[in-house]
Amino acid sequence: MTKNSTKKFRNLFSIALTLGVLASCSSSDDSTSTNESSADSVIAELPVVAVTYGVLGDIVSQLVGDNAIVNVLIPDGQDPHEFLPSAKDIESLNNAALVVSNGLEFEEGLEEVLENIADSSGKIFMAGEHITVRKTDEGDEHGDEEDNEEEDHAGEEGDEHGDKHAAGDPHLWLSPATMLEMLPALTTALGEATGADLSAAATTLTTKLQDLDREVESIISSLGECNLVSGHDEMGYFADRYGCEVIGVIIPSFTTTSEATAGDIAKLKEKVEQYKVPAIFTGLGVSPDTATQLAKELDIKAVTLSTHYLDGAANYQEFILKLTSQIAEALG
Q1: Of 123, 145, 210, 320, which has the fewest Cβ atoms less than 10 A away?
Q2: Of the options 1.10.10.10, 2.120.10.30, 2.60.40.10, 3.40.50.1980, the CATH number for the domain spanning 214-331
C-alpha cells in the first residue's frame, strides 16, 4: 500500500468511526427522549383530583398515592375564607375528575363555582356532608345571653347579611376524629374517580389518624386546664374532642371575613380575666396588631397558630402535632 493510500485509508477510518459515535449518541438520545415521552404520557393519562386547600389535599394525596395527580387550588398561606379563583383556577376545577372541597361555606369565594360544577353534573365531594357538623347558637356560643329585643331583628339581619353560623362550623380538619368520620366516603369517591382500589391506603391512613388522635389526647390531657381563646371561631372541633373549652374569640364568627366590634373585644377581655387564660391564639384573617395589643393589655401571650394551612408540615399528621404542641406549650 502506498503512502498516499495509507493516509487515505486512515482518513476514511476516522470518518467512519466518527459517524458510528454520532449514530450511537443519536440512538441514546432517542432512547432517553422515548423514555421521557413515555413517562409524560403516563402522567398525562392519570386522572386529576382538584382539592381546594392544602390540609385536605394532603389527606387526598395519602389516599390516592400514584393513582392520580392531586392539584391544590388555594396556595398554602392564603386565607381559604377569602380566596378568589382566577379563570385558570375555574378551568382546572371544571376539568378535574373529582373536586374535593370542605363545604359548609368555608371556601366562600368558590361557592358559586362549585355550585355551577354540581349543576352541570360535575363530580364534587364535600367533606362537610360526611361528618357530624358542629353547630352553635351564635348568641349563646360562649355563654353570653342575647337580649330579647335583639331577637326581634334576628330575621332581618339574617336576610340582609346572612347567618354567619347557618351552615355550621367548617373547621372540621382540626380534629383527626372528624377526618376519620368522613374517610370512608372520601375513599369511595376517590376510588370511583381514579378507578383504583384504595382500600389498603385507607386502612393505613385510618391507623395513622387513630394513632394521631390518641397522641393529641395524651398531650392535651396532661394540661391542668385547656381554655382556648382564638382569632375567630375555629377551634370548636378540637376543643370538643379533647376536653378543651373555647372561652372566647376575637372575631365571633366561623369566618375571617367578619369583623369584631368594640363590644366583642370588651366582652372577650372580661372572659380572659375571669378564666385567667394565659394565651391568645391567632392566625390567618386576624390583625396581628389587634391580637398583640389585646395580649399586652391583658398581660398574656399572643401565639400565632397555622390552623388553616400546612405551613411547611410534611403531612397532616405533622401539622396537627405541631398545632397541639404549640397549644400545650402556651397553656402549660
Answers
A1: 145
A2: 3.40.50.1980
